[in-house]
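User: Can you write out an input/output pair for a complex, sequences first and structure second?

Assistant: Here is one pair. Inputs:
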Amino acid sequence: DDGEMVIKFSHVTNTDKHPKGIAASLFMERVNAEMDGKVCVEVYPNSTLYNDDQVLEAMLQGDVQMAAPSLSKFETFTKIYRIFDLPFMFKNMDAVEEFQQSEVGQDMKEAMVRRGLLGLGFWHNGLKQFSANKPLVAPTDAAGLKFRVQPSDVLVAQMEALDASPQPMSFSEVYGALQTGVVDGQENTWSNIYGQKFFEVQDGITETNHGLLDYMVVTSVDWWEGLDADIREQLSTIMSEVTTERNAAIAEVDMENRQAVLDAGGVIRELDAEQRQAWVDVMKPVWAQFEGDVGADNIAAAQEINAKH
Amino acid sequence: MEVILLFVMVLGLLLIGVPIAVSLGLSSMIFLLAFSDTSLASVAQSLYQAMAGHYTLLAIPFFILASSFMSTGGVATRIVRFSIACVGHMHGGLAIAGVFACMIFAALSGSSPATVVAIGTIVIAAMKKVGYSKDFAAGVICNAGTLGILIPPSIVMVVYASATDVSVGRMFLAGVIPGLLAGTMLMLAIYIIARIKKLPKGEWAGWGEIWNSFKDAFWGLMLIVIIMVGIYGIPGITGAIFTPTEAAAVASVYAFFVASFIYRDMGPLRNSDERISLLRKPQAVVTAFFHKDTRATLFDAGKLTIMLMFIIANALILKHVLTDEQIPQQIANAMLSAGFGKIMFLVMVNVILLIGGQFMEPSGLIVIVAPLVFPIAIELGVDPIHLGIIMVVNMEIGMITPPVGLNLFVTSGVAGMPMMAVVRAAAPFLAILFVFLILITYVPIISTYLPTSLMGPEIITN
Amino acid sequence: MSLPDDSQGTALGRFFDSVEENLIAAILGVMTLITFANVVLRYVFNESLIWGLEVVLILFAWLVMLGISYGFKKTTHLGVDAVTNLLPSRGQRVAALLSAAACFAYAALLMKGAWDYWAPFAALQPTEGRWFPLGFTENTRDRAFYMTDQVPMLGILRWLEDAINYGDSYDKLPRVVPYFIIPFGSALILLRVVQASIRIIKGEQASLIVSHEAEEDVERVAAQNAQEE
Ligand code: NA
Ligand code: NA
């Protein structure tokens, strides 16, 4: 409407099924209802406006105000978030949540301020599982296979630790590539595995819970600081309430998607403690490579929280 | 309302002879500056990202390059010889062979004008020699050449897939049956006309000639096998080897290899009409990469890529502006609330594309129209692959109708006839394409059967 | 420094033509080879050049951004001449002049956008103003830290670290390098559009467009046909 300040929120998923899309839609509804006449949020889903790579540049340029890329997209801004990509860093989503809510985690939202970005909240997607076109039980099963990974140093190192071959590939091509066998496997969360129907074209999914896929809602520092204090306050409150609400629901969403995979005939392989430990033993050494980037004290803090869960 | 202004501006600029790309880009920039608060920097970003951010579109330069090596490398001539050996003896044989050759070349090349140039150059002259009228020859080739974008690989399909995020592999498969069907319809029509008008028939040269010409064309025909096996694999033997984009790059390297070292119609092993053995000139293994023929082919393909991508990139800028103003949603809502059913919607899409096709280059048109109609199609339960094939067939028709018809221009040049004469010559066959369009629109299974049975139903994840 | 126009025949003009033509050919050739190499590496050796895809996409952008200006120089961009062909010659000239003006506006706006986009990556200041550059802004946060995803840093570009990145080392190629083509390509487009417009004003050239993509091939064929008949 006229006279309202427009906030463009650009993301890359659907609006009603993907955890990020749902959260963005909820944020839009609440702001548009509660701040009617002052602020209007417009959501641009499905990469229609920008993809994850371009959106941060556009944000610094002032062409878009909010986005929620996955944490590995911030690599060039600060390497500290690599802690979230490191394999087996967090025991479960409760540990992730507690870490992000801790002082260490909250400080991380401001890690990019000098580069011009401010974190408004962490949004969960969930823990990642491996899938491939042959059964994966022991980590040696992954050796020699080609896995599509996001182009991040940590994820590349993780696949190399498994003796697997990391392959860069745009997300929209993954289904076709798995189906036809151009690549053998991939890693993703339950909601992506179900949403993108990867289970249809894989032998099965191994429930490794080995990594984390989370997002950070970001905004431009310059834009944010130019807002009236009361508007900023109100946006902050709504954002944090939406974040709490959707993050609390993530375990349920994850389980729904996991069940949906089973219902649709997908095969899920669970690992017993010993089998899982074998994966940990192979992949955990990757931590040492990136300890300098993420800080030994941060790793220690995460492990302390793990111990409680 | 402002949107209408935008489209009027595009059209106005087009008609006074501003390059298509500039018409799209300038209108978008003016609109953006006047009606939104997005910066000019975002236009520069969109332009660069049109290439750097669209993995799928990368198939375009590679398919163009493969096609260039195929044409310069003498593959077209061999395909024509093989086609004549197969069907040349029938009534209207040479014309039917021309269509057949266009179909084969279409399976190597992603573009329709390229198909007309490659095949038309040889066939039209040959047809005139044995007594066909120039008009008839031009009409046949002008139409058959449009199969270049329907039979995979296809640049227009790549653009559609990129604009809507459907799988290129699926689109390619979907084009196979419609492509064969359209080709068959054309050949049948020619046969009937030939019987009525008593058109010349060629000599049956025997199975020996079929075999010999096949052997001669074999290395070119192998490219079809390489592309198909590479993209889809052979069940039980190998999985796929590459993505459709990579397939195009592999095809280019293969075509270069065949042209330079097997056919030796270009490169260091060709000495006017003589073919030099690689054994006598082993350094050719290296020099072929830098030979002036190779460079010229690369340059030609590069130039064509630039021409197309300049338009596509600016169409993407326009698309960005439309998205920025949330126009697709408004149009979708308007159409959905108007209560259109599936059929009415598809008819509207056909009308929009047929009109648009009169003024725009196909890839640019698809970049703009596909995102506008795609969400509505999904909402109405239209299969995205089916929609894609409908769009491609519309683009085929656009190519042979005035005022802007790429195939018309090319045919008029290749045949050395005035544009209007080509338009008249193409008209009877245009009727066949119209019947074909109706068939494709109402019978989705023609398009969806192959991809669905080989790759399962299309998933819509957005 | 003054760049030459393409007045056919001058040695310098031919030199620039051949530089551009060889660049276009070379970029496309390298793109093809890298992509091909990655297929072979993956299928045969189970390896990959992790930077391969990104580099090819960058080269794709370079190919086109460099080539657009060449297209203006050689008048190879596609347009619609169906309507202008119906006009009397005076009308055609007016249309050509208007069309040149539109191309100039496009190139000038693009140039401003290109600079504004690129400058922060090079630790430079973008311009003020919405339509026209009205001087440079101050205190725009620079984006010189911004690196590509996977392209390795080149040793010969290490000087950039001191020049624009406060001495911080780059572990990947900074985006300022691939993005350089944006202002550079735009500047070339502007130059070629101005030169083409001058030719149109002088009456040395009739329009800025060709009507279809295979015009040159067709001319070649037509020439052959003429010889045979
Ligand atoms: Na084709
Ligand atoms: Na047309």
